[in-house]
Amino acid sequence: MASSAVAYAALMIGSSACSVCGNSMLLLVSLLNKNLRTDTWPLTCSFCLCDLALGLSIMPLSAHTSILRPTEGYPSEGTLCQASAFIFVLLQLASVHSLTWVTVDKFTEICFALSYARVFTARRAWAVLVAVWSYCLLIGALPLVGFGNYGYSAGRYVCAPSFRSSCMGFNVLFVGLGIIAPILAMCCLYGYIVYVAKKQARRGTFVCNEQHCFYVPANNYLRSSVVMIAPVVCLLVCWMPYIVICFYESLTGRESPEPVSAVATWLMLFTSALNPWINSMTQTRYRAALWLSLTKLRQTFQQRRKTSLSQVMTTQPASARESCSSAPPPPPSGQPRAPTGPSQHPTGHEHQHKPST
């Protein structure tokens, strides 16, 4: 077994654990806090479920393949390979496009706050979600009907789209419209948000509530801008090697080096572990909801522990209660304790009479 295959399997297993834990935690926090379940919450739930499914299916399968059958893999025409490749493409596209619409929602909320409630309604959010999944199902099913090709890649240890020159049409749809276009859209939206934040920081901004108005310092806008840029930067860093490899193999007709393909595939899948943190947990409301949920769970655990201890103390064995009740009560203070041993009365010859005077 090659050391590179073992290292790849370790990276996949670690990424799978992080993806499952992070996305499960985000789902639980959203379900336990009603204030997070807004009209556009289904979009966040969509990319969260996609990343969770990737962590439970594709990553463990890739780790298993890299350790047990790194060279032969699975037959490209087999059902397992075709199904895993379809799930691979479907979940990746659905995750990226759901993230894009989450960004559109955030952009509208920040830049068009007054008309946000009219623009993003619950019905429109569900319509967007249906359109996203319909598009992703269509793109993922094209190689199954002959437009494109799914096959096992020994360098990536997964069944994935084959980036050959004969599949150029599908490659353009998958990589160009499916990956590059939404990432560029997110870059533009976040870039405009940062531009608006800098403009407001220069002229100063007052935020008012029902009681008073207060000045928001410029460093608050700059710090918020850095937090907003982080998701796009992470997406670009993780997806760029995979996109470059796709174009390289499509244009040249040659496969890229196996270590490069393995690292690029792992980085692309690793986004499923980063998404819940860089897109949701960086927001103040999600962090506050997380701490509130942890506090509630800790209080519940402590309450149950106290209840169980009180039940143990009140349900003692009957023999222990009887032994305690049959024991004689202690004598009151100031009185001598009765002798517990045999009586020591003096015998008759031991009595001595004093002589009469």
Describe this structure in words.
The protein has 357 residues and is mainly alpha-helical. Helices cover 70% and strands 4% of the residues. It has eleven helices and four strands. The protein has helices at 3-32, 41-56, 58-68, 79-111, 116-119, 122-141, 168-203, 218-252, 258-281, 284-314, 318-326; strands spanning 150-153, 158-161, 205-208, 213-216. A two-stranded antiparallel ribbon has the order 1-2. A hairpin with a 4-residue loop joins β1 and β2. α7 (168-203) packs antiparallel against α8 (218-252). It is globular, with a radius of gyration of 35 Å. The termini are far apart. Mean pLDDT is 79; it is low at 340-357.
Layout of helices and strands, plus pairs?
Layout: H1 3-32, H2 41-56, H3 58-68, H4 79-111, H5 116-119, H6 122-141, E1 150-153, E2 158-161, H7 168-203, E3 205-208, E4 213-216, H8 218-252, H9 258-281, H10 284-314, H11 318-326
Antiparallel strand pairs: 1-2, 3-4
Helix pairs in contact: 1-2, 1-3, 1-9, 1-10, 2-4, 2-6, 2-9, 4-6, 4-7, 7-8, 8-9
What is this entry, summarized?
The protein is mostly helical and 357 residues long. The chain has helices spanning 3-32, 41-56, 58-68, 79-111, 116-119, 122-141, 168-203, 218-252, 258-281, 284-314, 318-326; strands at 150-153, 158-161, 205-208, 213-216.
Beta fraction: under 5%
**Mean pLDDT figure:** 79
Shape: globular
Strand order of the largest sheet: 1-2
Indicate the radius of gyration in whole angstroms: 35 Å
Tally the helices.
11
Backbone structural class: mainly alpha
Number of E strands: 4
Following the backbone from N to C, one meets helices and strands in this order, namely HHHHHHEEHEEHHHH
Helical coverage, percent range = 55-70%
Tell me about the largest β-sheet.
2 strands, antiparallel
- Identify low-pLDDT runs: 340-357
CA(first)-CA(last) distance: 118 Å
